[in-house]
Amino acid sequence: MLDLTGKNALVTGIANNRSIAWGIAQQLHKAGANLGITYLPDERGRMETKVADLVAPLNPSLFLPCDVQNEAQIQSTFEAIAEKWERLDILIHCLAFANKDDLSGDISSTSRSGYGKALDISAYSLLQLSGAAKPLMTAGGSIVTLTYLGGVRVIPNYNVMGIAKAALEMSVRYLASEMGSQNIRVNAISAGPIRTLASSAVGGILDMIHHVEQVAPLRRTVTQTEVGNTAAFLCSDLASGITGQVIYVDAGYEIMGM
To answer: Is 1 domain-assigned?
Structure first.
């Protein structure tokens, strides 16, 4: 019943085969979606090569550089989508960053520049990309972003990223309200801790994973594939009545008090 055949989907945030965005891209492809992939460009082109090799089996029809701190690259990304596809149906936002120094210590010691960068890349970018996608979602659409429990509860060594995720979750609600009249749905997935390139910057990530395995009702953490399955569901007609929500995919950890 979950069929995305004929849907055009842009996936951001793939860095390697541990990325949650990679799990999402695989499940969208499995459901029949036509994929466009963006990557974060670097001076030596290493990320382009790495991501291109990884996603080759998914046969993406668009493969584009997109640094969300570069307005020109955002514009060129969506111009390429308009030219190639004419219509966009799905936007997957898997982007987050904070300086490692701002993920530990006293939150009151967070630098102004570090705070601004974390909020810019991790939260404001959702507004940027959604605003650019909106004119292309002429047949309605689905926007899905990734968040974490640290946006609503204090998590050790998460600090400014928790503030950024709180902003991201509120952005989901305001975007859902804005875009609902155009049948564009906006939701977030709050995934349990998974070992990724991004999570490696969080001190004690392995301890966090082991804690979830001990406490969560399912006595384990989750996989990229499970998050990808939920994203595919949210992008399908099966979720046509769901918008403005944060869906927890964390083996039930969020419900526990201790």
So the answer is: no
The number of folded domains in the chain is: 1
Tokens encoding 107: 């939150």
| Residue among 39, 115, 124, 148 flagged as catalytic | 148
> Is 172 labelled a binding residue?
no
Whether residue 115 lies in the annotated active site: no
Give the separation between CA 114 and CA 185, rounded to whole angstroms: 31
Query: How many angstroms separate the CA atoms of 157 and 52, rounded?
Result: 32
Domain-embedded: residue 2:
no
Nearest to 163 by CA among 197, 117, 212: 117
Using CA atoms of 250, 254, 257, 258 in order, give the dihedral in degrees to the nearest 10. 30
pTM above 0.90, yes or no: yes
The CATH number for 38's domain is: 3.40.50.720
Q: Per-residue pLDDT tens for 2-44?
A: 999 999 999 999 999 999 999 999 999 999 999 999 999 998 8
Q: How much helix, strand and coil, in percent to the nearest 5, is found in the chain?
A: 50, 15, 35
Q: What SS3 state is found at 106?
A: coil
Give the domain extent around 98: 8-252
196 is in an annotated binding site: yes
177 a known binding residue? no
Residue 93 in any domain: the answer is: yes
Whether 3 is in a domain gets the answer no
Is 148 one of the annotated active-site residues of the chain? yes
175 is in an annotated binding site: no
